[in-house]
Design brief:
The protein has 510 residues and is α+β, with helices and mostly antiparallel strands. Helices cover 41% and strands 21% of the residues. The strands form 8 sheets. The protein has a 7-stranded mixed sheet, with helices on both faces.
């Protein structure tokens, strides 16, 4: 049997997945871990937490695979994916110097301003395709250099979370262009490190690893790693991809016209693009794709599912018990209640900026708002307003993608919200286009396994593998009347941020 392994190092846990060459997910093993928050706005994890989780889940997947007749020698290649932007610093002996600063760490506001000043706002976007953001890796490097000079002086290698797993598996210091796109150090058009940015930020290029396309083989499993994981020594490890780039492959988004929307804790609109395009305002990311020589455009909202979770946990205290009494999930009950409120929620609009916002506002100070709340509104209206607000915010990202000239003919919904038929219909109506679902919801881990298959020669290209392996289970089309009704509320939704922008700043300053 020919089998490929995908390893996903997420923020809240790790997953290892076995896929056969027909795209069937044989089994998966997961484990969870926590984020350390040393101070408000900080977020850290020790890299060895990820390695221990990778070892545990790989061994778990191998154990489950054995029950289905799959042995370690059936695994022909390994693919890697994981959370982006995190700063991993190793000393000369290959040991982590300090816990990694994660993508959601917000301590680097001053460093972002320093980067923008050093490179120039316009030039930075020309080179890296993105502005300096607190989530990115480059400001984290500057923060450590400024605030922890002893740690910086020890640093021999800098890498991203998934690439630490590669280092532990193979001893190799390498990365891929999709993940490196989120560091703020990559010439995204040229798909190589930007000498100009590195020089202006005084970062030694020797700290950074060799770059590969996502499906290229970088190295192979060492005997030491084989002993730890149970994998055969010598099997190839491909470069892999950042989590969203890998999720695109796992949902079949590898050609022009294809896009996916994710409603997890955050929300993402991701569109494939064979040609490099930029948003001069830096409102969406342009990153290298996991498809060699191509790119993707990605809009990110910070509080998608988090907004609905907040509503459930802190405002609708009866939902959990009511759902349990009926033997359904709280979110299934909330879907039902949403369907019983009309479009527009009886003139109630929610701004889902619970943690500030990235796309399209790049504003850390904006906050959530219930606009139009009155005594007539019920729990059903509150639920629908949050779901509509998230959908409008995702539409803001999609509108920017369209304005950049990237064609979007089909959209696939994934993540927790993508599993809701109610929400898929809402998205189809708000977007004004069909929204589909795919057979497997494994996302990044499946994408990593597919990339491993391409690297091992099982498929001629990444797009060909996606066409062959990813199956759509259905598509939800828009209702033109509903689309027109949603458009009225979306226009008002967009105007509210502009109206309150200065007041958000004033509130933050109090």
């Amino acid at each position: 049997m020919t089998v490929f392994l995908g390893i996903d190092i997420g923020t809240s846990g790790a997953k290892s997945l076995l896929m056969d060459d027909a795209g069937r997910v044989i089994c998966a093993a997961t484990t969870s871990y926590t984020v350390d928050i040393p101070q408000n706005g900080w977020a850290e994890q020790h890299p060895d937490l990820w390695w221990n989780a990778a070892v545990e889940t790989v061994r778990g997947a191998l154990s489950k695979g054995a029950e289905q007749g799959v042995g370690p020698d059936d695994i022909k290649a390994v693919g890697l994916t994981g959370q982006m932007h995190g700063l991993v610093m190793l000393d000369g002996g290959g040991a982590p110097i300090r816990p990694a600063l994660l993508w959601c760490d917000q301590r680097t506001g001053e460093e972002c301003a320093e980067i923008t000043e050093a490179v120039g706002a316009k030039r930075l976007i020309e080179l890296t395709a993105n502005p300096a953001l607190t989530g990115f890796t480059s400001p984290k490097i500057l923060w450590v250099r400024k605030h922890e000079p002893d740690n910086y002086a020890k640093c021999a290698k800098i890498m991203l979370p998934k690439d630490y797993i590669r280092f532990k598996l193979t001893g190799d210091h390498a990365g891929d262009v999709s993940d490196a796109s989120g560091m703020g150090l990559l010439d995204v058009a040229g798909r190589t490190w930007s000498d100009e940015v590195l020089e202006k930020l005084d970062i030694d290029k020797a700290l950074l690893g060799k770059l590969y396309e996502s499906c290229e083989v970088t190295c192979s499993i060492t005997a030491k790693a084989a002993s730890a994981t149970g994998l055969p020594a010598g099997i190839p490890v491909v470069a892999g991809a950042g989590d969203n780039a890998a999720a695109a492959i796992g949902t079949g988004v590898a050609r022009d016209g294809r896009a996916f929307v994710t409603i997890g804790s955050s929300g993402v609109v991701f569109a494939h693009a064979s040609k490099m395009t930029l948003d001069p305002g830096g409102r969406v990311h342009t990153f290298c794709s996991a498809v060699p020589g191509e790119w993707h455009i990605m809009g990110v909202m910070l509080s998608a599912g988090l907004s609905l979770q907040w509503l459930r946990d802190h405002t609708l205290s009866n939902i959990a018990s009511d759902a349990a009494a009926r033997g359904i999930s709280p979110y299934a009950l909330m879907d039902e209640m949403c369907s019983q409120s009309p479009i527009g929620c009886n003139r109630l609009i929610f701004l889902p900026y619970m943690s500030g916002e990235r796309t399209p506002h790049l504003d850390p100070d904006c906050r959530g708002v219930m606009f139009g709340l009155s005594g007539i509104h019920t729990q059903k209206d509150l639920i629908r307003s949050v779901m509509e607000g998230i959908s409008y915010a995702l539409k803001d990202s999609l509108d920017i993608v369209h304005a950049m000239g990237a064609p979007v003919d089909s959209i696939t919904a994934c993540g927790g919200g993508g599993g809701s038929a109610v929400w898929r219909q809402m998205l189809a109506d708000v977007f004004g286009c069909s929204v589909g679902a795919v057979q497997s919801q494994e996302g990044p881990a499946l994408g990593a396994a597919i990339l491993a298959g391409v690297g091992a020669g099982a498929y001629p290209s990444v797009p060909h593998a996606c066409d062959l392996l990813i199956k759509e289970t259905g598509s939800t089309g828009p209702d033109p009347a509903a689309t027109a009704e949603y458009a009225k509320f979306h226009r008002l939704f967009k105007s509210l941020y502009a109206t309150m922008k200065d007041e958000f700043k004033a509130l933050a300053a109090l």
